[in-house]
Amino acid sequence: MWSRSTAQQDFLVKPTVTWLNILLVLVFSLSFALLLVAIHTNVQNIVILRRLFDVPESALVARVLLYTSLIAGFILGKYLFLELLGYIFDVGELVLVQYREFIRTILFLGLFLPMVMLLYLGLNQTLPETVLWVSNGVVSLLLIGTVIRVARTLHRKASLLNLHLFSYLCATEVIPLVILLKLIVFTY
Fold first, then answer.
1. Most buried of 21, 165, 173, 182, CB within 10 angstroms?
2. Exposure letters 76-109 (e unless 16+ CB within 10 A, then b)
3. Helix, strand, or coil here: 73?
4. How do residues 99-125 score in pLDDT, each as one tens digit?
5. How does 160-178 read in b/e, with b if 16+ C-beta sit within 10 Å?
């Protein structure tokens, strides 16, 4: 994760869409969806989700599957979004590197989600407010850490001091981050 060796950066030249990566994205999506459903049992109070997908509070399995598909769709669909903005900003050569680093970082940080879920299940009855703060903090760190790691990798390829590239990074990483933080964390 923090190494500067070229062996660690070999991941950025390997194929991104493999069966293993798709399976890992689905596992990450499922664990993230489980955490979201466990933390925010009233996620349906989000106006956008309530209008698009009307899933009742009692249908936990349906909600977990819905959020799993939304998260997996977001992760896999981000490549098309990056391709479109890469074409608009004329930085197409950075799109694949950015997407590979996004997948790499999100899967690494996703390793901590089961631990947070265990913390939630173990301590929610005795310290519900503390567990909620820790869980929201981990979700925030997952999202913010991904953006920082992607920005660091892109800065190695091309300087982010270039206003054009900085605008591209804001459009592809920072604005979606703010939207996700608002929808997931700061709603409650």
1. 173
2. bebbeebeebbeebebeebbbbbbbbbbbbbeeb
3. helix
4. 999 998 888 888 888 888 888 777 877
5. eeeeebbebbeebbeebbe
- The residue among 146, 125, 143, 142 whose CA lies nearest residue 38 is 125
Interval 136-154: pLDDT, tens: 888 888 888 899 999 998 8
CB 26 within 8 A of CB 39: no
Task: Please provide residue 19's backbone torsions phi and psi, each rounded to the nearest 5 degrees.
Answer: -65, -35
Say what the pTM is. Answer: 0.77
Contacts of 56 (CB under 8 A, 6+ apart): 44
On whether the CB atoms of residues 66 and 55 are closer than 8 A, the answer is yes
From the DSSP assignment, how many helices (H) and strands (E) are in the chain?
9, 0
Per the structure block, which two tokens stand in for 162?
Answer: 């270039």
Give the count of alpha carbons within 13 A of 178, CB side only.
Answer: 6
